[in-house]
Amino acid sequence: MMNGMRGSYTVNNGSVNGDNRVWKLVLTGGPCGGKTTAQNRLATFFESLGWVVFRVPETATVLLGGGIDFNKLSAQQVAIFQENLLKTMFQIEDTFFELADTCSRNCLVICDRGAMDCSAYLPRAEWEKILEKLHLNEVDIRDNRYDQVIHLVTAARGAEEHYTRSNNKTRSESIEQAAKMDMKVGEAWVGHPYYDVIDNTTEFETKMRKLTKAVTTKLSISGAEDWLRQDSRKLKFLVIGEIDASKFPSHRDFKVLHDYLPCIPGGPQARIRRRGRGEKWMYTHTVRRQEKGEIVETRTSITRQIYDQLLAQADTNNNFTIVKTRKCFVYNNHYFHLDIYESPLAGLMLLETYSAMSAEELSLPPFLEIQKNITGDPRYSMYNLSRKDNKDTLESLNDFAEAPSETLTEEK
Length: 412
Description:
By secondary structure, this protein is of the alpha+beta class. It has helices at residues 35-48, 59-64, 75-101, 124-133, 138-144, 175-189, 204-219, 225-228, 304-311, 382-386, 391-398, and strands at residues 15-17, 20-28, 52-56, 107-112, 148-152, 195-198, 233-240, 251-260, 269-277, 280-291, 294-302, 322-331, 334-343, 349-355, 369-373. The chain folds into two domains: 15-219, 3-Layer(aba) Sandwich (Rossmann fold); 225-402, Hypothetical Protein Pfu-838710-001. The strands form two sheets. It has a nine-stranded antiparallel β-sheet with strand order 11-10-9-8-12-13-14-7-15. Strands 1, 2, 3, 4, 5 and 6 form a six-stranded mixed β-sheet that branches. The longest helix is centred in the first third of the chain and has 27 residues, at 75-101. It is globular, with a radius of gyration of 24 Å. The model is unreliable at 1-14 and 401-412 (pLDDT under 50).
């Protein structure tokens, strides 16, 4: 069924399936706004919280990938294309929407563009003809079909130096065309009750943080606020003892593997990550460097093919592969990761969270035996743990369970 159409079709509002929630999110904007990376970031975050995440592919990319050159279409052909694009989009989205309604857990459905994007590529009169022909109501398909719309402004507006067409074979817009289309697409969604615009006035990582915050705020996600505050910092603790599964809260486990790539001494560090459950994996390339005295990390989502190519170049002469299980959970409105290492230093357990509070103020999980606060201790950095020639670090941590304790007092 095509939600939003009359007759045998119905409007698909945000829904609650028993005790579970379905949230339909549209990511829109001109080309090169960060939508692909945004989908991966949201998927990582919400899957860590135990949500099911569906990612609806961009319908236009699917169709244009079949040999259609949009720039060479006549006005009549553009109208035909957009009409069929809209119908195809509804059918693809409805597949994911209906599956989401059957999920036994909360489900986030991320749509790479939505119905109103089609209107930005047509004269108003042609768009209204399509609405009439398909018996569509614009208010329904804009305001009622999706729960939230986030406009990720193209790099062509405010981050021109980062605008590229190399990461999408169907992208042909010049920087001027991209900026113009970004404004048109944004205007098409004005009126949606939950419409957010995230521009390029900050660096890209902050843009992604704002995106996640915009979604978690609308959903009132417990524990997300401290992770997404700009003044938050990572806190890290050494955990010892046995994990009592009966006392552990609801959590999600992921397998994580990190490999470092060759780098120049004193230069940027580059690594690749594979993270997933079962046979479902996500792949990331990260570059860590210093800028104006601050550490900056740039993360890019990559394909399995690129991951395999980079893995073949991993610096195995100097670095171990980091292999660990990551347990993600919420305790006392804080979102935690517990990393249990398999290699190197099997059994090493490190607890991490982001918070604007100090380590002494933070309420730590009572079901874990926290030995000490290791925030800022270079011995426990993932890079140092991976180094084969860092004998001092590895030898000093071989007996980490017997290291001098700096146990923190928990706030009740």
